[in-house]
Structures are given as structure tokens and as C-alpha cells.
Specification:
Layout: H1 3-8, E1 11-15, H2 28-40, E2 45-47, H3 60-77, E3 82-86, H4 93-106, E4 110-113, H5 122-136, E5 140-144, E6 147-148, E7 155-156, H6 160-165, E8 172-177, H7 182-188, E9 196-199, H8 203-206, E10 216-218, H9 226-238, H10 241-263, H11 265-275, H12 292-313
Helix pairs in contact: 2-3, 3-4, 4-5, 9-10, 10-11, 10-12, 11-12
């Protein structure tokens, strides 16, 4: 039923970040231009998601508006482009169904579902996905990130039994693997090719999973120029080690080792986008953007990355 979508969901998948204007409102003009910049540089798979897209800072009506805008914008650039949007980070199954139907009616290819309720059993989580699938018929991308245990409140990874049961639900098309645990990633890749696994994290980690069938990853530093993501994927497919090493060492490593390691991914991604002139780094509280002093480091690193990107593409 969803074979066409699954087959198209490969390579670099590009995050849709949510920019805010000086008043703190969603800056749709800048957002549209950012989506266009990804498309013009070769990106064809777009993903609005819980944290990168700042759902945690939005009201539920704002998420609906954002989802609809992103879907319409991506599809206006090319009907064959893939677009994935999400449901609120915390909500009931009934509200997830409302968001899924809204995304389906607007033309989304998949709905990304993140369960942040405390975990008590596999059946609890599977019943949630199954009910959404039955009620909507919408293709689902499961956003797999650690749960909080309902028994002691500790953070816990998904049980293998839960991961292996996902293919029983026909509407589940893909999984965003977000545990940052190599063993769990290898387990998740056992779901391929029935469930397409999109791996989050550094490209230097992603390539380690090629022997296990890894076919899709989240963009990372390619957020400033989709040509980097497309070049990496081409090198990954052909085994071009020289290009892979150049991207890992000269483009990815400076940003992750010097900026992300110091300030964290979710604050530095918007800062990097500002250095590239793509959007303001500002967010809504309680997420505080990098200060002017902190931002200096990102500016310095971006200039290095920019020169390396130019070298890669010439």
C-alpha cells in the first residue's frame, strides 16, 4: 500500500526548521524561502518534526498551521517531493488522529508520531499506532526516541520486542531511529526493507551502518546547503571514500566537535542557519538561543565550513 513512499524515502532527509520573527511569531516568509533553498540545492525529502521544527514552542493550532504551510509549499515545488509532518509532542491518541487526518487532507506523505506518554507495555504503544492507522489510513513514520518508564521514571530505550512488532501495523512505513545507541540502531535496521529506517546523528556514525542496510539519514550539517547532503549520499552509494572523508573531516567535524559538543545540537542548528543567512537563531522561551558571545564561535566555524563546501563543489 505504501511501497512507493517507502522506495522514495532514501538518502538525505531534510529538516524543516521553524523560524521566528522579532515579535516571536512564526516567520512564514523566511520558512518558505528556506524550503526553497533546500529544493534548489537538490533536496526532495522534507521533514517537519517534534524538536527540530520547534513543536515544543508552538500551540496546537500553530502546529496545524505550520504543517499545512509546509505541505503546500513542498508540494508546490514538485508534486513528487516527499513531505512528512508530525503531531504534538504531548497529546492523546484522539488528538493524534485529528492531526493525522489534517496532514492527510493537506497532502502529506507520512505523519511522524512521537509518543511521550510514559511507557508501561508494548501493547500500549502498539495500540496507539494501530488505532491511528485504522482511523486515518495515513502512512506513519514512528519517531523512536527513549521513553520514560511508567514504573520508576527512568529513561529507557525501546524494547527489542516493541521494535520487532512494528511491521504488524500495515500503516507503519518508516522509523526515525533516534536512540543514539549503535546496538539499538542495528536492531532497528532488521526492519528493513519492510520499514524504512531514517537514522539521526552524525554522518560519521551513519556510515558504520551501511553493512546493516542503512538507506536514509537526517541531514545534520547539510541544513545550510543541501548539496552537501546530496554529495554525501552519492559518495555513500558509490563507495567514494575520498569524498566521504572530505565531508566528514572538513565539513561535519568542525561543527559537531567545536559547536555542538559545547552548546548542544538544538541551540547550534538555528545559530548555524543564521550564520548562513537563512533565518534568525532566536527561539521562544524556555529554549534560549545562543548569546552574542557564544554565537561568535559558530560564525568562525561556519566560515571554515563554507570554504570547505566551496572546495567540495568545485
Amino acid at each position: 500500500m505504501f511501497d512507493d513512499i517507502r522506495e522514495l524515502l532514501f538518502g538525505c532527509v531534510y529538516t524543516i526548521f521553524t523560524p521566528f520573527d522579532v515579535t516571536g511569531e512564526i516567520d512564514y516568509e523566511t520558512l518558505g524561502k528556506y524550503i526553497e533553498s533546500i529544493y534548489k540545492a537538490g533536496g526532495r525529502k522534507f521533514y517537519a518534526m517534534a524538536y527540530n521544527s520547534r513543536y515544543s514552542q508552538l500551540t496546537h493550532p500553530e502546529i496545524l498551521d505550520l504543517n499545512q504551510f509546509c505541505i503546500k509549499k513542498v508540494k508546490s515545488l514538485g508534486s513528487s517531493n516527499l513531505v512528512i509532518v508530525g503531531d504534538p509532542i504531548h497529546c492523546s491518541t484522539a488528538e493524534t488522529i485529528e492531526f493525522s487526518n489534517h496532514a492527510k487532507d493537506a497532502g502529506a506523505d507520512l505523519i511522524s508520531l512521537l509518543v511521550r506518554e510514559k511507557y508501561f507495555s508494548d501493547d500500549q504503544i502498539l495500540d496507539h499506532f494501530a488505532e491511528v492507522g485504522r482511523q486515518t489510513g495515513m502512512g506513519i513514520l514512528v519517531h523512536e526516541m527513549p521513553f520514560l518508564s511508567g514504573f520508576n521514571g527512568s529513561q529507557m530505550h525501546w524494547p527489542r520486542s516493541l521494535l520487532m512488532a512494528l511491521p504488524k501495523i500495515p500503516q507503519i512505513v518508516a522509523l526515525k531511529e533516534d536512540a543514539k545507541d549503535p546496538e539499538l540502531t542495528r536492531i532497528a535496521l532488521e526492519l528493513e526493507p519492510r520499514v524504512r529506517v531514517v537514522i539521526a546523528g552524525r554522518k560519521s556514525e551513519f556510515i558504520k551502518f551501511k553493512p546493516y542496510g542503512a538507506r536514509a539519514y537526517l541531514n545534520g550539517v547539510s541544513i545550510v546547503d543541501a548539496r552537501v547532503g546530496e554529495a554525501f549520499w552519492g559518495a555513500y552509494e558509490t563507495g567514494d571514500k575520498k569524498t566521504i572523508e572530505f565531508i566528514l573531516n572538513r565539513i561535519e567535524a568542525p561543527f559537531f566537535d567545536r559547536c555542538v559538543a559545547k552548546y548542544g545540537w538544538h541551540r547550534t542548528n538555528k545559530a548555524l542557519l543564521e550564520t548562513a543567512g537563512l533565518m534568525r537563531r532566536h527561539d521562544r522561551m524556555p529554549l534560549k538561543h545562543l548569546s552574542a558571545g557564544e554565537f561568535v564561535l559558530v560564525e568562525e566555524v561556519y566560515q571554515e565550513i563554507k570554504m570547505s563546501i566551496q572546495e567540495l563543489l568545485t
